[in-house]
Request: fold
Amino acid sequence: MPAAIRIEDLTKDYAIGFWRRRSYRALDRLSLEINSGEVFGFLGPNGAGKTTTLKLLMQLIYPTSGRAEILGRPVGDLAVRQRIGYLPENPSFYDYLTAEELLGYFGELFGYRGHDRRKRVSTLLDRVGLGAERRLQLRKFSKGMIQRVGIAQALLNDPEVIFLDEPMSGLDPLGRRDVRSLILELRDQGRTVFFSSHILADAEALCSRVAVVAGGRLAASGTLTDILAFQVRGWELIMSGLLPDMVSRVRPAVRRVTEISPGRYSLELSMDQPPERILAELTASGAALVSLNPMRDTLEDFFMKRVAEMGAGARAPLAEDVRAGR
Amino acid sequence: MRAVRVVAVNVFRESVRDRVPYNLVLFAILLIASSYLLGQLTAGQDVKIIKDLGLAATSVFGLFIAIFIGIGLVSKEVERRSIYSLLAKPVSRAQFIAGKYAGLVLTLAVNVSVMAIAVYVILAYIVWTQPPVIRASWDAPGLDPAMLKAIVLIFVELMLITALALFFSTFSSPLLSAALTFGLYVAGHFNADLKNFEKVVSSKAAAQLARGAYHVLPDLSAFDVKTQVVHGLPVTMGYVASTTLYGLAYVAGLLLVSTLIFSRRDFK
Reply:
């Protein structure tokens, strides 16, 4: 399958300081290849270099070294931009325009005219749930609504490759669900989706492959199962209708017990304690299962571990303090 | 070309939504009020004063629009981060700069045209109300078409000021851009004095510096033919054409440098 996005040794240094100029490495020799038609999650904690990578791919900033291609053409090629969509992190638009006018404006830039443009704009606004607000000025929009407008403008040109920088940011649970289903819909249509997030659950629900960046460096890449399997460190069992004597009976096998409300308990089990046995015992005594979830390290924990494994302090790879011009 | 046009139309729309045309109402009120007052105070001089005031107000109002919108053309896009989505579309940075500039020039063209029409309407009213004997005493006809020459040059000067504001806004903050543009506007009007600075100062270095500044700074006094037009003195078409060409060449140079700076800029 041909690569939709190819990134080779991409590096970005910023000059910092006013009097004493120093160089700050925001991205360090990142190499990635994203296949056509896959949903690729680009994960990392805040400040890891996700947005920097996306800005480099959109040529909003220029690399210090390395190169990147989208659809076999160098980034910045205007013909490529005709075929891609981009949602920036915390997007912001012209607040004097209505949603319809904004998409009409961008639609014109893509070469849509007259009826075609109006139809496309209308369909997209309906798709992101803003059909009723199409004639409202953007200054009256909430953050979540702006995010939806941002998603609509990223899909305006029916793009082959879509870049979404923190697409769930600012959205309520309903909005997050809509965006997830939209991304899956795009995948089913054979489009390539490259999205950044610091929320592991998003990646788990959507991605075929992920890359994890920490401190500006690639910490891991591959399928989620490969990367995150080792992280499960136990189970959380939430039960209702539990009596105190039932809790006492299973207590030795449970790592931690927390009473959430009368009769409702959270039971933490370690990895070597399979939940099936306790679950069977408690349900046989009349308790009811509310939920059973694997307990994982947070994504941040994972990053910290990986950074430590990479043989450096948490922030060391970020700020190499490379002198300007060195 | 499509991208330039689309960006330009959006700049125009922004200026309309930002209520820039309201200045036209203020302009009209100022002109009508002053013509009424001057009509009461002066005998036969009112046409000259209306022309003077009308052209000066056109120039000043246009200057405010050119500077205060011009300095925000690029910096506002960067500040509100709307540039991120825009530059991810099939728009080059050169097209972005050209579109932004063209949009503000379009706004200025509409403003200057409406102001010029307003001046002519007031003058037509005065011509209509004055007896032939008074009209005969005027230096130039009341509805003198030569005024258009002054208006054209005011417009070209505003184009140049806009290009200066845009140039500064590609690399500095709005406040600094405004200060620099206004500073160059003032310096540009005294540019001719720099040519012969050695007659005023004894320092050779200062004279050479002034000579260098004379060549680099725009000669804005060349665009000011208001006095000649108001007093009926001749302004040749050749002068208007050559000054316009000078202004356009300067604009082209500024846009080129603005594009070069902007094309290398990182949007962090």
